[in-house]
Amino acid sequence: MRRIWSWLLAASLIGALAPTVAYAESPVELDGAQILDTTYTLSSSELDEIAAAADALEDHRDVTLFVVIVDEFETPDEGTEWVGDTATLNQLGGDDILLALSTDGREIVYSVGDRFDLSNNQIDDVIDDHVLPSLRVDNWAGGIIGFASGLDEALAPGPPWLLIIGGAAGGIIVLWFGGRLLVRRVREKRYRDEQREKVDLAQDEAERGLVAADDLLRTAAQELDFAAAQFGDDATAPFHEPLQEARSHLTSAFADQRTLAGVDQDDVPRRQSLIDDIDEHTDAIDAILTTHSAAFDELRALEAEAPRLIEILSATLDSAGSNVLDAHETFDGLLRSYGEDAVAGVAQSSEQAERLIAFARVEIDRARSALDADRSGVAAVHVRSAQQAAGQVEELVSAVHSRGVELREVEVRTAAALADLRADIERARTTAVDDTGDGARLIAAADAAEEESARAETLPILLRLATIDAADASLEEALTGVIARETSRSTATARYDRTVATATAEVARTRTFIDTRRGAIGAAARSRAEESAALLRTAVAMAAIGDVVAGYNAAASAQKSAQDAVRLARSDVESRSWDQPEDAGILGGIFGWGGASNSSSSRSGWGGSSRSTRSSSRSSSRSSSRRSSGSRRSGGGSSRRSGGGSRRSGGRRF
């Protein structure tokens, strides 16, 4: 019949177990339980499933799995050290494996005896294959069950017939390597042949592209000559330089082709490099000629449309004059309202626009004269010049109006920023603070912001907004700092009494533990205990003089220092070698951590306990099941385990 693990009611045991479960993040005592969940992550049904998996592992491989789940590993905060300390604290044996999970820290760690049948690498493989996929989607129970089943699988003995196969494998390996070498050579030759064939095809294509580029360049040179006769030398002069650049690319491509012809056919990398160079040159030629052929097409279109375009441009220039006059008036208004600095970017735009209108009218007259002389190509060139001038006029007029819109927007933003600054000044003057130093700093910051606000009124519009924003940012920083300190004081005040009470209990518990076991406690634990008491006195003293924040921080440090002292003291007690029976009597109850029920548990000194003893104690307390409001525990009774020997740890984050 499947064994059933019991729930321990943590609420009813809070007094007895306070040294071990009140702070689950520190190394914990299991007190006979095999599953300890301090985070309430696992449901009761999940605990039952984990218990079943752990039972199966123990039945099959005689390995006992212990599981601890906490929020974070603390004191120490290194996961592998934490799990090692917990295993030592609970005296786990060589066939016991302790698995610990940090839900907030996203870390899984384990501790096993040095002589455990699996190496750390093998256990890591179990975690990678069976655990991490579940943990990464927060399936904690699935990850733990996967760990148990993965260990079961990894610990399974290999079939004996593998030895027989191993003996026969020697001869087979020789044949295998020989065949492998032959196959590799065949594959390498086939690969070289394939690569050479690809390069041959690429070379043929590159040479065809080179011939096409040469033909295209010759045609372009002829067309440029025809265009010069049609549109005039001035119109075609800009095309000579690009044509020369294309010829330079063609010369380089032919040089690469000649080099390519002399390269050994089997030198595939060198051939491919030269082919790539040829392709780059021909692509450059194509891009140059394509770009400038579009300009020729535009001129030819203008030639056909020249008479109609002349009339359209004339009407456009007539309306542009009134637009320029309107832009001039707009500029004068902006200059009066915002000053020279604000409109410097569009100064003299109206004058430049008037000069461009005059130039465009001259070009239109020249275009008409060329048409009368039956020189439509030359007329197209003048039409294009007039079009470009008219376009620039439109841009200049638009820039003036856009500047006006921008300045009005800046004016609105400046007014809003000034209102915000004044509101923050008022807020700073009325903010109530307990500390007179903070109050004085706020008043000084408000005065400085008010001075900057007054100075901004005298600055140009563009500098005004930047000055106001800077003053507001400085005041806001001062306000934020003061409010943060006030919040810190309020928080510390609210938590001070509770933290001092907890720290007082921890310091007293630590002192009691050391006093009752002083014969085994070393200097480190005693020093840490004295430190905790001193910090607690500091906490009370700081609160007495009104520095509650410092008092709260000291109390929190005292609490942590006391926990560290207990951990060090326990380590001293557990590592002591007992030579005389009376030594235990001197310490007084050093073996009594588990309560009176421990008297029935059998021990075997410090060297390790028999599995039969542990199993009987586990099964003896599996008769009941209930849920606690504190940390969840599942598993055996209260008898302590007896362990020994060194251990090793490992783990990873997920």
Explained architecture:
- It is a single chain.
- With 654 residues, the protein is mainly alpha-helical.
- It contains 18 helices and 6 strands.
- It has helices spanning 14-21, 44-61, 79-89, 120-135, 140-154, 161-231, 233-236, 240-261, 268-338, 340-343, 349-372, 376-430, 436-456, 461-516, 523-544, 548-575, 581-587, 611-620, and strands at residues 35-37, 64-70, 96-102, 107-113, 632-634, 647-653.
- Strands 5-1-2-3-4-6 form a 6-stranded mixed beta sheet, with helices on both faces.
- Helix 2 links the parallel strand 1 (35-37) and strand 2.
- Helix 11 (349-372) packs antiparallel against helix 12.
- The longest helix is centred in the N-terminal third of the chain and has 71 residues, at 161-231.
- It starts with 13 loop residues before the first helix and ends with a strand.
Protein traits:
single chain; 654 residues; mainly alpha; six-stranded mixed β-sheet; 18 helices; 6 strands; disordered N terminus
Compact description:
71% of the residues lie in helices and 5% in strands.
Secondary-structure map with pairings?
Layout: H1 14-21, E1 35-37, H2 44-61, E2 64-70, H3 79-89, E3 96-102, E4 107-113, H4 120-135, H5 140-154, H6 161-231, H7 233-236, H8 240-261, H9 268-338, H10 340-343, H11 349-372, H12 376-430, H13 436-456, H14 461-516, H15 523-544, H16 548-575, H17 581-587, H18 611-620, E5 632-634, E6 647-653
Parallel strand pairs: 1-2, 2-3
Antiparallel strand pairs: 1-5, 3-4, 4-6
